[in-house]
Design brief:
mainly beta
């Protein structure tokens, strides 16, 4: 079981969270975590936002008035 220090809303403070044995085969990277203080469960995940294509801006030339 891996352990992380996260904020628990139920306990109202920073508590150690641990990943219980994962039946889905995630191993140590299991997104399910449980607070060791009160047992509240959370699911964590990481969102990878797609990168925007780099666009070149056209140079705008201003004329003197």
């Amino acid at each position: 079981m891996s352990e992380r220090q996260l904020h628990c809303d139920t306990c109202g403070s920073s508590q150690p969270f641990e990943a219980p044995p994962c039946v889905d085969g995630h191993g140590a990277d299991c997104p399910e975590l449980a607070c060791t203080g009160c047992g509240a469960a959370i699911v964590t995940f990481i969102i990878h936002a797609p990168r925007r294509a780099m666009r070149r801006r056209k140079t705008v030339q201003h004329r003197a008035a």
